Amino acid sequence: MTQTQVPEQMTAVVLDAFSGAEALRVEQRPVPKPGKNEVLVKVAAAPINPSDIATLAGRYGFKPELPFTPGGEGAGTVVAAGPGAMGRYFMGKRVACLWGGQGNGVWAEYMVASTRGGVLPLDDSVSLEQGAMSTINPMTAIAFTEIAKKGGHKAIVLTAAASALGQKVNRLGRSEGMQIINIVRRDKQVEILKEQGATVVLNSTDADFCEQLREACIQYDARLAFDAVAGPLARQVLDAMPPHSKLTVFGGLSFKPAEASPDALIFKSKSIGGFWLGPWIATKNPIQILRTWRRAQKLITSDLKSQIRTEYPLEQAKQAVLDYQGQMTGGKILLRMDSQ
Ligand SMILES: NC(=O)c1ccc[n+]([C@@H]2O[C@H](COP(=O)([O-])OP(=O)(O)OC[C@H]3O[C@@H](n4cnc5c(N)ncnc54)[C@H](OP(=O)(O)O)[C@@H]3O)[C@@H](O)[C@H]2O)c1
């Protein structure tokens, strides 16, 4: 094993039960050792994402064995490498790290990550703070615009549009000449997006929301929707789009099943599908993945930049999660492992 100086013990966040933030505690754990094709990352920062909240409740796409350290993405420096050429390549490099549900996640001072997709090199121009948020949402924003372009769509409908991801999709989509029909649930969110240059932003709590949405879908010929909310909103969006449209569910923020009217599916040939970043990346060959990653890195300081609302030391992870759940719009909350 190649390594610089690494302590025996580390501070880590641990989840004891699938009951959300209340089941989080902070403890001292042995620093893990990287195996074959793995590296040890000294983590600097990690955001709290909706997928983390779902993981804490046992409602994400993977359900690790308890107790475990959560945290889907972050950034840091590779300080040790197990056997394998890629581990040696990554040694000493600043990287973004991703957790795929095996072993433990990023909310710890050190994390073991696979060299096969679990670590990606950061450009010199990208800070560790922005690097910590440079995988999940930036790559998803690229995926959405790529999927829309491939399908010949010049307009898309987007729900939970004032989210960190939504703002990225807006900037990237606009730079590619795409019309985004944004859906949010509060007037403040309408303001946020309009101040950033969005032209169509609808509030789903308006009495005539469904009518406004139908008109916008006709005006811009929007036949593709990306929906992070599900529940009744999925049905409203599907009903508003023209025949043969598709609704792609990529989040379950309402924690309700996605509704659809049988009429829309049967007589209007509309459809519902899903999107998950991991399987989308897996459809690409290594060169395409590298190209997408390079593009995301180049745009991290502009179209794909993330706003940070506040930072918490790792020790205050529970408070940080509760704060995030109380206010999701307005920038990411970062956990800092390097705050001392
Ligand atoms: N499938 C994938 O591969 C993939 C990849 C990346 C992201 N995502 C999903 O993308 C979505 C956005 O992620 P993010 O990191 O950008 O989120 P974020 O910045 O933390 O913001 C979440 C946004 O969702 C809104 N929201 C929460 N619950 C809602 C509800 N029930 N109805 C309507 N709006 C609601 C919040 O508004 P309030 O302030 O009003 O609560 C906030 O604007 C999440 O669902 C996430 O899981 C999925």
Inertia-based shape:
globular
Ligand species: NADP nicotinamide-adenine-dinucleotide phosphate
What name does the CATH topology of the largest domain carry? Answer: Quinone Oxidoreductase, Chain A, domain 1
Main sheet summary: 8 strands, mixed
CATH class label of the largest domain: Alpha Beta
What is the gist of this entry?
This protein is of the alpha/beta class and 340 residues long.
Describe this structure in words.
- The protein has 2 domains: 2-133 and 306-336, Alpha-Beta Complex (Quinone Oxidoreductase, Chain A, domain 1); 136-278, NAD(P)-binding Rossmann-like Domain (Rossmann fold, 3-Layer(aba) Sandwich).
- The protein starts with a strand and ends with a strand.
- Strands 1, 4, 5, 6, 7, 8, 15 and 16 form an 8-stranded mixed sheet that branches.
- Helix 4 (136-150) packs across helix 5 and helix 7 (209-220) packs across helix 8.
- The protein has helices spanning 50-56, 85-90, 128-132, 136-150, 164-175, 187-195, 209-220, 232-240, 262-266, 277-282, 286-299, 317-326, and strands spanning 2-3, 9-15, 24-30, 38-47, 73-81, 94-98, 110-114, 119-121, 155-158, 179-184, 200-203, 224-227, 246-249, 271-274, 308-313, 332-336.
- The protein contains 12 helices and 16 strands.
- 45% of the residues are buried.
- By secondary structure, it is of the alpha/beta class.
- The model has no long low-confidence stretch (mean pLDDT 96).
- The longest helix is centred in the middle third of the chain and has 15 residues, at 136-150.
- Bound molecules: NADP nicotinamide-adenine-dinucleotide phosphate.
- NADP nicotinamide-adenine-dinucleotide phosphate binds next to helix 1, helix 4 and helix 5.
